[in-house]
Amino acid sequence: MVFSSLKKTLLGAALSNFGDSFERFQHYQKVFSSLKEKLLGLWINSFLGHQVIHILKNFSSSVSHKIIKKKKNVTIALDLDETLVHSSPFPRDSDFSFTMISDGESRTVYVRKRPFLEEFLEKVSEMFEVVIFTASTSSYSAKLLDVLDPHKKLFARRFYRDSCKWEDGHCLKDLTVLGIDMAKVFIIDNSPEVFRLHVNNGIPIKTWHWDHTDHALIDLLQFLEKLGDVDDVRPIIAAEFGVGARINYAHSSSPIQIRRNRSF
């Protein structure tokens, strides 16, 4: 009798404990489930947050880049040969070389870079839209420019010999082919004759072949800074270089003549 009573008591206690444990288990299961949902929500929000931040950063960078580009409201056209570089069939003192096909033959061209060329290009690309306007052939110039600007970040556009005009065997670079307001564009060229159609848009520079002490490019930078954000570059260029003197030089009896039939 006593044993039976004790058995009932123990069984009742076990069932009671089991009930309490089961209730606690259900409680903890609900808490865990709720916590899991909250953690999942936080993770999703965090992930989406990072995605939104990433998108906003890219958008901000893109907008900033476009704003910077808009600030470059003046275009500088640069001549190539004897202004920025000198090319030769001979390897002496060359900085780099490349092979091109000319008149059906393979030729190696050796190129010297004018002193301070990299510094000059880096600086003007910050201030202006930079384009190349050369009387040389595209087959030659394109390969040379791909070495100078392999990632195509410096030169926005390239204009070759087929963009030039020719009168009595003389080359003329008509800046209107660039499609830009003439108040917002200028050219630097070692042959002032080529910009006689736009004398107030042209800046002459000394012809360069090999002089290692030359510093004409770096010397120009201080003046070029005046042109970066002006309404009209022409009066500033005219005042600095003298229109009359440059016209006379351009029409002098012995101007630098560019041969139309040269191979490059």
Automatic annotation (TrEMBL):
Probable phosphatase. SUPFAM superfamilies: HAD-like. Residues 69-227 form the FCP1 homology domain. NCBIfam families: HIF-SF_euk. Belongs to the CTDSPL2 family. InterPro entries: Dullard_phosphatase (IPR011948), FCP1_dom (IPR004274), HAD-like_sf (IPR036412), HAD_sf (IPR023214), TIM50 (IPR050365). It holds the Pfam family NIF. SMART domains: CPDc (SM00577). Keywords: Hydrolase, Protein phosphatase. One of its GO terms (molecular function) is phosphoprotein phosphatase activity. PROSITE patterns: FCP1. GO terms for cellular component: nucleus. This is Protein phosphatase. It comes from Vigna unguiculata.
